[in-house]
Design a protein that fits this description.
The chain is mainly beta. About 10% of the residues lie in helices and about 45% in strands. The protein is elongated. About 30% of the residues are buried.
Length: about 375
Amino acid sequence: MFISRNIKPYATRLLTLLATFLLSFGSYHSVAASQNVVIDMSQSISASQLAAYNRDGIKIDYDNMPLLKRVSVTAQDGATARQLPNGAARKVKSYPFGETLEVIEEQKDWYGVRDRIYREYDENNDGIVETDIVKWEKVYVKKSQTDLFNTIVLKPKDLNIISYLLADGKEERFEQGKALKDYLKFELIDKALFEKKRPLAVNFLSKDQMIKKKKGVLSILTAKEVVKLVDIDTDDDGRVSFEYVGQINALNQHLVFGQFWEISGYTMFDKTSGRQTQDFLGFPFMSPDKKHIIAVYSNPYGDQHADFELYRVNNETIELVMSTEFQNWMPAIEPEDVFWARDGYLYLAVTHSAAFWKEDGDYNDKFQYIRIKVDL
């Protein structure tokens, strides 16, 4: 393998050959890298072929390129995709911690991964980009910067890292993440403690058996009026459906779940007036002392994270204390895997955000466990 040689002289030679070639070759269509080519760095590469790789990439036939496996970036500072399986090769792209990579080739120290790569071309060598394209290519990532999904685990220091905070009417975003030091205390626990506390879960929700949906209309009888919520049955993004969840007598509220295409949430309706009182991103769990509500939701879109809302309950009034996004963990999607116990802790089965999905595209059910205490 090339990596056993002295890298610096070889890299200098490559750069010299590339510079010479690019001065004489200006057209995007001049040299094309072969489809599905396997790069063997123990064999010499011609100057023209090297230039083609660096300029046009290693194009692949996506439909006919078998997927070997998926891995995740486990290096805390991310992974670097290079044009060839060598540390001196051109850097093509960077991947953050937790990014999923699709492996289509495996070498001793490198994975060949498929990705859509953006390239720009200055056809006339005048400093102006005449052509820019995005296409499927093979690039190379060091194995040491990746691992399988089940090796990505949460550490205690990961639990309170947030990327967004809304509190006291002020919104803030934290691109690099920030430790949340107020409002809550976190603890990483084992499954045994989680299961021991499960029988101590409190539940203030009860069913009103008289409330049912008929022909797509959910009718909720309150003291002053009947609230009617109507489903919209369509195949496009106008689809809407409602389900009655139950009543929370301690708050004098009915709870309804709404699904709006790719968005969902919970809404409370006052049992006396029928007024819509509060919307929640996730199921609202009320504390044993009935003084707080926490709603938490696994958000699988974009930079996967947990949406989290903390509310204060004053008599029957619900006030938002803060809303945030936890960067490193996501709760289980089944409501029974999140509960508030009589000891005052909210217990959650969670996964690392980077391991929310399994390789087969299903939800990851290999959980870790945390508990959260309100600290106001």
